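Possible regression after last week's pipeline update?

I re-ran a chain I had predicted before the update to compare outputs. Posting the input and the new output here so someone can diff against the archived version. Not blocking, just want to make sure nothing changed silently.
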Amino acid sequence: MALKVTIIGAGSVGFTRGLMRDMLAVPELADTEFAFMDINAQNLDMLAQLVRRDIAFNKLPARITTTTNRRRALEGADYVYNVTRIGGLEGFATDIEIPLKYGVDQCVGDTLCIGGIMYGQRNVTAVLDFCRDIREVARPGALFLNYANPNVMNTWAANQYGKVKTLGLCHGVMGGHWQIAQVIELLVNNGKQKGDKGFKPVSHKEVDIICAGINHQTWYIQVRYQGKDWTGRLLEGFENHPVYRKTEKVRIDILRRFGYYTTESNGHVSEYLPWYRKRPQDIRRWISLDSWINGETGGYLRVCTEGRNWFKTDFPNWMKQDPWSYAPDKRGHEHGSYIIEGLLTGRPYRGHFNVPNQGCITNLPDDAMVEVPCYVDRNGISVPQVGDLPLGCAAICNASISVQRLAVEAAVHGDVALLKQAAMMDPLTGAVCDPPEISQMVDEMLIAQAAWLPQYRKEIPKAVRRLRSDKRLGTRVWKGAARLKTQSVAEMRRHAEAARQNAQAADKAAAKRKAQAARRKV
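New output (post-update):
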């Protein structure tokens, strides 16, 4: 019997099309049935047209069905991908815009900080609905592969409350791995440039890492190249790299003060900590505007908005372009296809996944979701014991874990008190706002996001009454310290190819790959 893979939220053009390319590069998956599900029928139809054309071009027997009915899509599924954005860009905008009124400036706002906390409130309820359907209509033992953010909160809720085996998957470890290889290449060559006699290239495949922590705050605790540990020389390399010393100032400062490089992009990391975005006049000295991912205010919201608008406008031209070729050398680096391949064929795969801790990292709580090295083969998914994180790294992770735990419990139970405690405990939110401001900001966001928060339906009228009776605190009119204008379709037409690439790359993995490619040319 052929496998069935369901993708919930399949209308994501860049990400879903890439997942299909990755899976169908595996010969044993050539006759897989794929069920695409999305609540946006128009996006779903456009994406399916593109992928069906790719499949036909590659002469594969794989089949695609599309539906807006989730249970129908999940019937008999062996593997389920979650790539949803609950609330869409409308909800996402409130995660960015409302906090700005209270002085909270975020780059992404989908993992931690007040935007990530509220995104988690929208997501957790949906994820638990997905899990119920998986338990009831998918094939017994179906594996849930969660790519959606906030990754930790979603995966935590699915494993603990959804009772479905779930892996949280992210590309952050890979991006930093490639950066580290480039830094080692710089150090090894001691001033020699590509093309110089004796220049030695260094591939990330030659650099072995152990990375451990929590999603988006994972630490490269061991970096080995040619039998030596280079962890202690990374600061020297990053400080002297011609690009990274300008674009990764936050990550380099953390490396300088804590001794270890962290996985996530400069913009992401800056909003998880209390130090780098709390004073508006200081934000620009810590970030770079060469790419949104390096710290632009609301940068991810901007590129996603531009990408969606352009894709809808430009879709006929996409259909005129050459179909994608499926081949091993064109396969991407997202974990999902390699996990399915390993479980199905026994080919071993090593990647970093988000799993329940259960003693893997011994100085983080057992109930936390940790991102650690894992191994996959026909026997299943094996999680080795990492041991203790360095104390400073563990302290940063523990602060975030407390926020995540509170946010998950709040989302599951519709508990406003826990939700406001999560916001107060969040490092950046607490560095910028006092308790009354945080309380009022949460009330305002609950009201704005009511359509996606069924668990709070009894609490939202109370929030409305509080806002009417209390003195308004979130009255700042502010676009942020580093905001760039969202381009209209007419403006994007002037640079059509760049707009097309942006629409194709309106996911963070693609943005990182693009940035890495540009930096390799330096």
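Follow-up from reviewer: compared with the archived run. The mean pLDDT is 94. Marking as no regression found.
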